[in-house]
Please model this.
Amino acid sequence: MSERIREKLKILADAAKYDVSCSSSGSNRKNTKDGVGDTGAGICHTYTEDGRCVSLLKILLTNVCIFDCAFCVSRRSNDVQRAAFTVDEVVELTMNFYRRNYIEGLFLSSGIFKNADYTMERMVRIAKKLRLEQRYNGYIHLKTIPGASEELIKEAGLYADRMSINLEMPTETGLKLLAPEKSHEEVKRDLGVVRDNLVKFNNERSIIKSTPKFVPAGQSTQMVIGASDESDKDIMYTARNYYKEFQLKRVYYSGYIPISEDSRMPVIGTQPPLLRENRLYQTDWLMRFYGFEVQEILNDENPNLDIQVDPKLSWALRNPQYFPVDINTADYKMILRIPGIGVKSAKKIVQARQFGRIHEYQLKNLGVAFNRAKYFMRCSDSRFQLNDPEPMYIKKRILEKSQSKYLKNNPDQLSLLF
Amino acid sequence: MKIYVFDGSFTGLMCCIFERFEMKDSQVEIVSSIYHQPSAFDESSTIFSDEEKAKRVLKGLNKQLNKTFINSLYKAYLSEKPVAFQHIFNAAVYAFTAKTDISGDYGNFDVMGVSKIAKNVSREKHRMEAFIRFKKAQNGLFYTVIKPDFNVLPLIQHHFKNRYADQQWLIYDEQRKYGIFYDGIQVHEIELMPQEINSLLPALEVADEKESLFDQLWKDYFKSTNITERKNMKLHIQHVPKRYWKYLNEKQ
Model:
């Protein structure tokens, strides 16, 4: 018995790991008096050796699949071991891991067996059992199975904290090439069902307080990066549109790890594009927390992100007319745009300057990356400079003083530097 | 320079602040009695802990400062660092002298000092919430022994009480020789000497029959969820520093 469950867990965790989302935050489900589990700010209980957070028990219900998507390990033409959990096995694993403080909750996805509704119905049954029989109030992330009926998606939303469905490829053309059985239209329909119900439940809740929760941590999606030849602009414009249209909480970017001999995609052994992935996330953060419009960072003149420097520094170097910023007088919004100053430092600066003018030594103590910020700001005791330095000079100085954490892993990127 | 020697308790620390204003001393160094080394040239006085005085000081601080900063003062205290005690003292004196809410004055050395140390303590609190691994004993108790960098048990008990409301659990700090025990209704602080916990542990070591299976399954899961093509041990260790590996069954 225990050997069989160990084997299943190995197969079905291995197949689920390419879904990068492991967020357990953003929900507001609290424990009941005689229940177990709650949600809140999210906790990473451990990290894999590749440095990703492990917050949820992330498994597939089964890796049997009727689809044949070229980028997926579970595609039907792939020669891998297949397995399937029973409903009770998933419930028992989740509860026992949770009670030992191993995890924040369950992330359940699945290959599609028989048909979409059959698969989705099993997944809903697991969530329902956890909530109603186990009185479990921890986090549940359910994947929507593309093409599942509206009723099932709606029912899933009553038990899940977050739901997601993956766009897979940033553009419809890319998707058609690698996964002809899927389409962005279907994804949009499913995201739309959840969005419309979210709005409906929220409206009802404002009138009737006891309206049940519906996907309180919202929806997310994921795109594979580097399997086909989209530009960073294509990727981020798609992300922006989905954030807007479906009020997504997160878009994830997953650097493609070659797993197939398919001639349409990078060959096995190619390094996953980790640095590019990192730059895309930085851009995503600039859009969501720093008040940048995506067009400021990516446009027809700059369709791809600079690999050498981060997108915020890159924007500042392209727009010297806004700098230097005087941190004693400038708007919060403008302080936030100084390279080397993050959201927390910017807020601290705005608070601290009510008590007196800010000097360099205080800034350093505040947690600002001063060696980077100093080219773009002035404070009380900054030395007067006759000419502002050239952007190219600043870039050179900053690069000389910093060491990219990715260069050691990927020596061929060195050549880009000069 | 005057030296105040207090008993190391939070009450004692508050009383130092009371004394400072009562005696109108201007330059004061405060030191916990365990760190105090008397010398012939210092003028030191012993401050006695008095609940009433401490309450008055806290009441005053509550009027003066925002809630987050009051919490930061307490968190910084739990770091048990001498430098933290001094920052707390100075920041409180600054607050009473300025007669305005100085919580946001991050340009001030002591306000920033308190806020930085409080952040370190919060981080350790968060790590304990993440890295604690319970074992289930045959009698149904979920237990663990920890040795956190700072005294964070007072900060983590609400989290565990809310989350595991329907199971009994015990978290024991072997460094500070006390633990928190939840009996299904409320949390009790229990003082136990390490010898006592050692004699208690064999009883707990009679594990639940499924304990070793789930321990093994978790280790298997940890291995399977790794993506070897992306291996980055530097990042791994940055997130899970080696000193925490002893807590983590998946790292054994």
Q: What stands out?
A: Residues 56 and 171 of chain A are 29 Å apart (CA to CA).
